[in-house]
Write a structure and sequence with these properties.
This protein has 9 helices and 9 strands. With 273 residues, it is α/β, with parallel strands linked by helices. The protein has a 9-stranded mixed beta sheet with strand order 3-2-1-4-5-6-7-8-9, with helices on both faces. Helix 4 links the parallel strand 5 and strand 6.
Length: 273
C-alpha cells in the first residue's frame, strides 16, 4: 500500500472492555494487526477486568444509530463485525442498520463473557435469531451460544453438523461452530465452517494457556478484516483461525484472573523481538 492510501475499513459494533482484552479494544487491535483501519460503534460500556464483569451499561439506541451513520455515511466500510449488543432494542436497531449496508457482516452472537457473566438480555435472543442472524455473512457462535440460540448441545464432533444446520435455519450465509470449549478433543481446537453445502474443518493445536480472554471477539474481527481485504469466506476464516491460534499461544497474565490473548504476536515476531 502506497503512502497516503487508506487501508480497508472495518467497523466494530460492540461493547467496550475497560480491561482491554475483549470487546472493541480487542477488535481494534486485531484490525490494526491485520492491516486494516478499525472504526467503532460503542453499544455498551462495561466495568471489566481479568476477574470478570463488574457492571454493564447499554447506550441509548439513538447514540448507537448516530455513531453508525456518522462512520458509514462519511467514511464507508468494507466489512462490519458485531459483538455485545446487550438488549433486544439494540439488536433490532443494529440489524436495521446492517440491512442497509452493502458490506459483509460478521456476527459474533455474544451471550456471556469468558467469566460467565451475562452480556445479552434473555429477551434479546429472539431478536438475534430473527433479525440479526439473517443479515450475517458469517456467524461465529461458541458452543454455549449455540445452545442458547438453538437448544443443540454439542458434546462431540458428531454434533457439529447438527448445530450448524440449526444455526443456518436462521438465515446466515455461513456459520463457524467454534469448538474451543469442547472437552476430550485430543489436544486440538476444532471449528466447523459451513454454508450448508461446503464444509471446512479447521483444526489447530490446543495450547495449555489459561489466558484466553477475548478469543471470540478477536476471531470475528480477524474474519471481518480478511473479508474487507477481499478474501472469500473460507480463506478469511482460515486465516483468522491461524491468527487467533498464534494469539492464544502467546496470551499473557494480567491482574489476578484470566489474561488476554496477544493481539500483536505476529507484529512482535516479524520485528525480531
Amino acid at each position: 500500500m502506497s503512502a497516503g492510501t487508506a487501508p480497508p475499513r472495518v467497523l466494530t459494533v460492540a461493547g467496550s472492555d475497560s480491561g482491554g482484552g475483549a470487546g472493541i479494544q480487542a477488535d481494534l487491535k486485531t484490525m490494526l494487526a491485520l492491516g486494516t483501519h478499525g472504526m467503532s460503534v460503542v453499544t455498551a460500556v462495561t466495568a471489566q477486568n481479568s476477574l470478570g464483569v463488574q457492571g454493564a451499561w447499554p447506550l441509548p439506541v439513538e447514540a448507537v444509530r448516530a455513531q453508525y451513520r456518522s462512520v458509514v455515511d462519511d467514511i464507508g466500510v468494507q466489512a462490519v463485525k458485531t459483538g455485545m449488543l446487550a438488549s433486544a432494542e439494540l439488536v433490532d436497531a443494529v440489524a436495521d442498520l446492517l440491512s442497509g449496508t452493502r458490506a459483509p457482516v460478521v456476527v459474533d452472537p455474544v451471550g456471556v463473557s469468558k467469566h460467565g457473566d451475562a452480556l445479552l438480555a434473555p429477551s434479546a435472543l429472539d431478536s438475534v435469531r430473527t433479525r440479526l442472524l439473517p443479515v450475517a455473512t458469517v456467524a461465529t457462535p461458541n458452543l454455549d451460544e449455540v445452545a442458547q440460540l438453538t437448544g443443540v448441545r454439542v458434546e462431540s464432533e458428531q454434533d457439529f453438523r447438527r448445530a450448524a444446520e440449526a444455526l443456518l435455519e436462521f438465515g446466515p450465509r455461513w456459520v463457524v461452530i467454534k469448538g474451543g470449549h469442547l472437552a476430550g478433543d485430543m489436544g486440538e481446537a476444532v471449528d466447523l465452517l459451513t454454508d450448508g453445502s461446503q464444509e471446512h474443518w479447521l483444526r489447530a493445536p490446543r495450547y495449555d494457556n489459561r489466558h484466553t480472554h477475548g478469543t471470540g471477539c478477536t476471531l470475528a474481527s480477524a474474519i471481518a478484516a480478511h473479508l474487507a481485504q477481499g478474501r472469500p469466506v473460507p480463506a478469511a476464516v482460515t486465516a483468522a483461525k491461524e491468527y487467533v491460534t498464534g494469539a492464544i499461544a502467546t496470551g499473557f497474565a494480567l491482574g489476578g484472573g484470566i489474561g488476554p490473548v496477544d493481539h500483536g504476536w505476529a507484529l512482535t515476531r516479524s520485528d525480531g523481538s
